[in-house]
Amino acid sequence: MKAFRNAYMTVVVSHINPNPSLNPLPLFNHHHTPHPFLSPLRNAPFRFFNNPHSSSSSFSEVLEKGNTQIGVIKEHFNRLAEILKECPGQYYRYHNDWRSETQTVVSLLTFMHWLETGVLLMHHEAQEKLGLNTPDFGLDIEDYLVGVCFMSNELPRYVVNRVTYGDYDSPRKVLNFLTELHAAFRMLNLRNDFLRKKFDGMKYDLKRVEEVYYDVKIRGLSDKADTTDDQGVQGEPQA
User: Fold this and answer.
1) Which of 1, 107, 161, 210 could form a disulfide with 150 if both were Cys (CB 3.0 to 4.6 A apart)?
2) Rounded CA separation 232/177 (Å)
3) 55-93 per-position pLDDT tens digit
C-alpha cells in the first residue's frame, strides 16, 4: 500500500493535529513505501494466486496471516479519526489524502473475503472490519465501489493460476460471481469519472474469465471439477 501523501503530512499533521502524540506517521514514511505492518495483508491473497501449486494448507496459512493485520489497520484508522476530531466537519476537505489507500485496503479485504466465503463483502461489513462506521469518519461508498472494481481486476489472473493447479471448477465460480457483480454495477447511475472508468474495465475482466471458462469447457476439463467445494456460486453461468 502506498504511503499517505506528503500533503497529508503537511496539511493534516500541522493544521489538524495539535497533539504530537497522535501523529499518524507509523502509517507511512517519507519514501512512499509500504509500512511493514501492511505487507501481510497485501501479500496474503496475491501470494496464493501467484503460486498455482499452493496446497490448501498454505492457502489457509496466507489468509490467516493477512487477517491478523486487519485489526492493526483498524487501529490506525481509529487514530486518524481521533486526529480529524480536531477539525469537525472537515472530513471531505482532507479525504483525498487517504482515499487511494482506503480503496486499496477495501480491494484486499473483498478479495480475501471472497476467497474464504465465495460472496462479496458488503459495504457495511467492510465498515465494521475497518471500524469506519461513525458519523464523522466512515467508509465512503465510492471508495468501497472503487475497491471492489480493483478486486475484480485480479480475478482473471486468479482463474488462470487455479486452472494451472488443476482447479477446473474455479472459472465457473468466478464467472458467476463477476457476471452478478457486473450486472449490479450496471444498475448504478455513474458519473463520467474514475469510478465509471473502473467499472468499464470490469467487462474486460469478465471477458477474460469467460475465455478461460469456455476453454476449459471445450476441452472437457470441467467434467473433472469438484462441484462440492463450498466456495463460489453453484450452477452454470448465465448467458
Assistant:
1) 107
2) 7
3) 555 677 778 877 888 888 888 888 888 888 887 888 888
